[in-house]
Amino acid sequence: MTEKLYYRDAYATKFTACVLSCEAVKGGCYHIILDKTLFYPEGGGQPGDQGILGGVVIFDVHEKNGDIIHYGEKPLEVGIEVNGEIDWKHRFDLMQNHSGEHIISGIICKKYNCDNVGFHMGKDSITIDFNTQIPTEDLPWLEEKANEAIWKNTPIAISYPNKGDLEALEYRSKIELAGEVRIVQAGEYDCCACCGTHVKLAGEIGMIKVIGAQNYKGGTRLELLCGKRGLSNYRNVHQAASEVGRALSVPAENISKGVNKLLLEKDTLIQEMKKWKWDSFLNKIEKLPEDGENVLILEEGLNGRDMTALADLAAEKNDGRAMVLTPSDNGFAFVLVSRKMDARKIAEELKKDFDCKGGGKDQAVQGKLSGNEDEVVRYFVDKGYILVK
Ligand SMILES: [Zn+2]
């Protein structure tokens, strides 16, 4: 059994220990066991520590049958004494977030009489799952209540009550555990059995920010940021909001209004553009011959829907065939509408003369063909189509 120095002092970063074993495992990794350690192993939702042990990088730590296994990038000689130092930035971030998670979980479980049924501390944020639906309108109150613990600098105390006291104590994660139970008490806000490392005073958490809430397996999954993660997120979001605000000439707090106004303007412009486009189509159609001749319409910047609409209008007007072309990569996109019910046949002929893809029905085909404007236009004009530009 490795002696767990991190339970004596969660703030200690340096220690000396003896290497009891070192085993090479798959992937060029070494499993190192010491007689004692400050490296916290993954457990209770908290990831393992990182740091340096005898000059070797430790990138993860796990516990197995009471032994704490340090995952090293290089081997260490068995029997020697080594100096170890944990990555304090990494550990303190986990302590801030784990303690913050306890506080908000304690408040939520008490208010809704529910349980925390899942907890994951990811690299970017932490998620907590509750087996109840938390009303969205309650979130600001819950967030503020959790931050109240920080403003009051509530002490977070660790204790190991005896069996009798434990039975009388109300705490979260109350399950029958062999051996002593470690209780983490955050004042009036939370009391929970936990094996993780925590800050001593809630003030050290800095802030608790809920950044997401979604329905999850009939309950609610909250996404949370505490401490420096919360500050960094605020900085990034604020910077982005300020940039958008500057571009829209509105304060950062009003960017949603500014963006909505912009979207409305965009919708109006699209409607105007559609109308303008339709008018220009009708204008073009008016100039077409009415004697059943085939027409070739060449126009830039048309989308598929425009091309079909224009070809339909033209074919209706002249009661013949209407081929609409618009420049596309290395050639043209086309829509051919034919009242003579032979559009597919014409497309087959096109495929013989051009690199051409497409298909459809007897009265309408669409596709793409390669070629330059001169040769494509000449091809259709030679076949009797009247060019309309
Ligand atoms: Zn915990």
Q: Can you describe what's shown?
A:
The chain is an alpha+beta fold and 389 residues long. It is built from eight helices and 21 strands. It has a six-stranded antiparallel β-barrel with strand order 2-3-7-6-5-8. Strand 16, helix 6 and strand 17 form a beta-alpha-beta unit. The longest helix is centred in the C-terminal third of the chain and has 32 residues. The chain is elongated and about 100 Å long. It starts with a strand and ends with a strand. The model has no long low-confidence stretch (mean pLDDT 94). The site of zinc ion has 6 residues, from helix 1.
List the topology elements.
Elements: E1 3-4, E2 14-25, E3 29-34, E4 36-37, E5 51-53, E6 56-64, E7 67-72, E8 81-86, H1 88-112, E9 116-121, E10 126-130, H2 139-151, E11 156-159, H3 163-168, E12 183-186, E13 190-193, E14 208-216, E15 219-226, H4 227-248, H5 255-286, E16 295-298, H6 304-318, E17 321-328, E18 331-338, H7 343-353, E19 356-360, E20 364-370, H8 373-382, E21 386-388
Helix pairs in contact: 1-2, 5-6
The structure holds zinc ion.
Residues 44, 98, 102, 192, 194, 196 line the site of zinc ion.
